[in-house]
Design goal:
Shape: globular
Largest sheet: 7 strands, parallel
Oligomer: single chain
Number of helices: 12
Number of strands: 15
Distance between the termini: 128 Å
Radius of gyration: 31 Å
Helix content: 40-55%
Order of helices and strands: HHEHEHEHEHEHEEHEEEHEEEEHEHH
Length: about 450
């Protein structure tokens, strides 16, 4: 009779296998846990990095809000009154400034009204009998006291400049609700080519987000929709080598972030024209100069450095050729801006809905006569009666382009534009204003110090 099978070894083997399976399972679970833990750490770090990357704009926004509040407080001190938005008194002031004095006069909201071009355009519009309301945030990109002085000049001519930002949608909505503006002259922007390397976010905030905020309100909330004329820039031509620069030339190779934001603005304008029926005209300015100008511009800073004995950098190309600019006097640019406003057709939308095709245009506003920067320095030397301490420097790769030259034939045909001021004549007017303005300012500062 056969002996029964020995099951003790099989049982032991099964227990051993079972133990090994449990050990391996534990190891797998442990390894999986460690892997999951590490993945969680990596994901957390990634989220922290993502937040850090997006935090600067938030910090900038917080800083901007604080700065804007400080600017408004300073503004109230200058005017010796409390400035608030809304309310019967505020609305009366806005309507008063917006009321045209001539029959069929325009009613224009000018953004960046305390800026260089904005001040001159606002004065010209008011002088001919149009209604004008200005908007400016008085930021500190350059000396805010110069902007406040322009504001005082406008106030003396009956133009109200509201202290506010183009990204403030409730304020824009309120303004366009209080006054049915026929036109918006949008000149508010973050200017300057080189500054974009230090503060790029400010260009996106002003030139892209600000333009969108304005067009949103104009397209969806204004009744009727206003026609929009806005400041693009000759910088959009970027690395274009065909001259003179024509509106038909390519503009898809910007040389600076500033140029890129202005090119983006032209694309955004096309979008709002196409979707909402806004009548939009873009103006590409070429190196505007003149009285009440911007201190960051070369001609302005050169005048300061010549009088104070500081050295100035005169750029040239690596091959020794001179850097040239199509300097355009402010009065000529104002003529182009008013021509664009006068020929702008009505927008075709209502309540955010397009009713038909709307006008979309872009024009160069230049002098059509490039001048070497070194020659401009020589003219300033003669006008100021003092030699400059010149330092000839190779043009750096900072966004500046070596040459600008405007083809203005389209603006001449459609806007009646004519550039009539040569550089020597324009700089003479600028130098006279510069000396008088800063002489008065230094005397006021001396009087203030003496009475303190």
């Amino acid at each position: 009779m056969a002996s029964p099978p020995d099951t003790s070894k099989a049982a032991k083997l099964e227990r051993c296998n079972s133990y090994l399976r449990r050990v391996n399972s534990a190891k797998i679970i442990s390894a999986s846990s460690r892997l999951l833990f590490r993945a969680s750490i990596v994901a957390t770090v990634a989220l922290i990095l993502l937040f850090a990357l997006h935090c600067p704009p938030l910090l900038l926004l917080s800083h901007y809000s604080t700065a804007a509040a400080a600017a408004r407080s300073s503004h109230r001190g200058l005017l010796s009154s409390d400035v608030t938005y809304g309310g019967a008194a505020w609305e009366r002031e806005v309507r008063r400034s917006a009321t045209p004095r001539r029959r069929s006069g325009l009613t224009v909201l000018v953004t960046g009204a305390a800026g260089f071009v904005g001040t001159h355009c606002s004065l010209a519009l008011k002088k001919r009998g149009d209604g004008v309301v200005g908007l400016d945030n008085f930021n500190s990109y350059y000396d805010p006291s110069l902007k406040r002085a322009r504001q005082s000049l406008l106030s003396r001519h009956g133009v109200l400049v509201v202290d506010g930002d183009i990204n403030d949608t409730p304020l824009l909505t309120k303004l366009l609700d209080v006054v049915p503006f026929s036109h918006v002259l949008h000149l508010a922007a973050q200017a300057g080519v080189r500054y974009a390397m230090r503060n790029p976010q400010s260009y996106v905030t002003s030139n892209v987000a600000g333009l969108v905020a304005l067009l949103e309100v104009a397209a969806k909330h204004a009744d009727p929709q206003p026609a929009v004329v806005w400041a693009s820039s000759s910088s959009v031509y970027g690395l274009n080598t065909a001259t003179p620069f024509s509106e038909l030339h390519r503009t898809d190779r910007p040389a600076s972030l500033y140029a890129a934001t202005k090119k983006a603005g032209e694309a955004i304008a096309h979008t709002y024209n196409h979707i909402y029926g806004l009548s939009i005209t873009g103006l590409r300015f070429f190196t505007v100069y003149g009285p009440w100008g911007r201190p960051d511009m070369a001609y302005f800073s050169f005048a300061n450095y010549i009088l104070s004995g500081k050295p100035i950098a005169v750029f040239r190309m690596r091959d020794g050729t001179a850097v040239q600019r199509d300097f355009t006097y402010i009065d000529d640019v104002v003529t182009g801006c008013l021509g664009a406003l006068d020929t702008a057709e009505r927008s075709t939308g209502s309540g955010g809905k397009k009713r038909g095709p709307a006008q979309l245009r872009v024009y160069n506003l230049g002098n059509a006569s490039p001048v070497p920067v070194a020659k401009m320095v020589g003219i300033l030397e003669e006008l100021l009666g003092k030699k400059a301490r010149r330092q000839v420097v190779t043009l750096p790769q900072n966004g500046d382009v070596p040459y600008t030259h405007a083809n203005v034939s389209m603006a001449e045909r459609d806007l009646g534009y004519r550039a009539t001021t040569d550089l020597a004549t324009g700089l003479k007017k600028f130098a006279r204003w510069y000396v008088e303005y800063y002489d008065r300012r230094s005397k006021k500062e001396a009087e203030g110090a003496a009475s303190a």
